[in-house]
Amino acid sequence: MGVTLPSKGWAAAMGKMFSDVAPIRVLIVEDEFLICEWVAEALGEQGFAVHTVSNARDALRHLASAPVDVLFTDINLPGGMDGAALARRARDMMPELGVVYASARRMPDAQERVPGSIFVPKPYVPTLVGRLLASARKSTAACVPA
Description:
With about 150 residues, the chain is of the alpha/beta class. It has one domain: Response regulator (Rossmann fold, 3-Layer(aba) Sandwich). The chain has five helices and five strands. The protein has a five-stranded parallel beta sheet with strand order 2-1-3-4-5, sandwiched between helices. Helix 2 (about 35-45) links the parallel strand 1 (about 25-30) and strand 2. Helix 2 crosses helix 5 and helix 3 (about 55-65) packs parallel to helix 4 (about 85-95). It is globular. The N and C termini lie far apart (about 50 Å).
């Protein structure tokens, strides 16, 4: 006993179904170029729409001009604003923004973190980061009152 699937019609329908799902838009804020490129490439391969910047000022500029679902930021950033302060400012601008922090040095205190945020220690595995970013988007949306 076998299963016969329609050839072209079935494949076209499946492709249409999956192409209608909008990718999660991620803003990566990472001042270490090689880490940033490596993670951006890996997340792009996982289906995320990725934009990268190297400091908080450029991140705020991007957030003011483009839709973003999740902010993935290093804690230690150049330019006078760290990742925790950036996340607070970003959340003021976009209350439903998911936030994932990363650092090899320190985890921000509970008072520094925005509600519903996630912390991942460096070094990390990009596939795990992808799952965390998707989770951050869902958990933040569930926490924000309608």
